[in-house]
Each structure stands twice: as C-alpha cells, then as structure tokens.
Amino acid sequence: DAVLLVHSLLLRKMAPHRRNILHVTYHVKIDTVLDLAQLGLAAREGTTLAARDLYRPEGASDAAFDAAAGTLTIKGLPPHRIHLVGVRATDRASVAKATAQFAALGSSLPPELPPTVLDGGLVTPQTAYAAPGQTPEIQASAGIRVAAWRLPDRVLLAVINAGDGPRDAVLRVDLDKLGITPRLPWQEFVGVRQLHAELNAPAPTLDFYGRTLSLRAIPPRGGRVVSIRRH
Hints:
The protein is mainly beta.
C-alpha cells in the first residue's frame, strides 16, 4: 500500500511599496499521475485498487482516484495544508473470506470489515485466521473471546465481551511466538492501534515487557478491533 502526502504552498504577491503586502491565497486543484507499477500497486486479476482519505483539511474535497488511469485528483486544497491519501490494492477473495469470518463473530461488531482494517494491509492471501479459542499465543481473561488474523509481522484481533455487563479485557500476548517482537534494537518497535470501537472507547494499552494487552470497559456483547504490529 502507498500513502501519499500532498502539500500546497502559499503564494504571496508583494506590492511596489514595502509597507503594502498583499497575501493572495489560492485553494488549488492538484492532479497527480501515479506509477502504480513502481508503487507495487499494478492492477492484477482478482484485486481491487482503492484510495481513501486518511487526513483531509477543512475546505479540501475528497480525493478522487481513477484506478484505470492511475490519477489522483484533489480540489480546493488550502494553502500550507497537507492532505494524506492512502492507496491500497486488496485481494477480493481474501476480503470476502475475512468478511464472512468477521460477520460470524456476532456481537456489536459491524457486519463488514472496517476500512481501517483494509488500510493496514491486514487481509491478504497469506493471512491466517484463528477462531476464538484457537490461538494459544493469546490467552484472554474470563468472559472474553478473541479471534485473530495473523501475518508474519502483525496480528489483527477482534476482542468480544461475551457477558451481560461491561468488562475489562486483559490478554496475555506471546509476542515472541507471534513473531512480532522487534528484531533490530532501536530500529523496530511494536505498535498497537484500535481500528474499531464504540464512541469514546478508551484506547488499548500494550505492556510490552509484561506481554499484556488491556482494553477497558467493553460493553456487554460488544466488540473492539485492535491490531498489533512490528514496525
């Protein structure tokens, strides 16, 4: 996947007299031609190319992506602002399979994979799925069910409160067996990100040395989606 950073510059026009300075502000239109092959995003049979705004400043339009032409268009980008756009290639068969696995978990999880899951490259033909109770590397506290989608350097977790009242989830995570422990000291690190949760849900916390992942106050029959990744 690729993340594109688009930056606009403020254009300034100075009047003949030094005391009269006129700032002319332009909201620009930007057309970008992407070499998708060089980015590793060349169209292949069974894949879908898509773009999504990761950060859009006020006043700018949504990014328009033409996968066939390889062009990305942004209108109305204000001066000195940054617009972040992610372009991803997803395998349709893998997405369909993961969507069915996700929907089968029930609870308050959405019936389809959140876009943030696809943005993170977490669903590929190489992704290995383990239903709740089938991942010995992850031990959950009482009343918590955990499904996992694994790749060599990352894992996606659906953490579900199976009870009738709010519950904290404490997961014992064997990062070594999952292959997520950093291999290059001071060059790699482990990050945790909440990809789907109810409104105002507390952020998850990872105790790297204690090998525990904590999610506080999951609602009854509720679920959250979290990724752990070696960067």
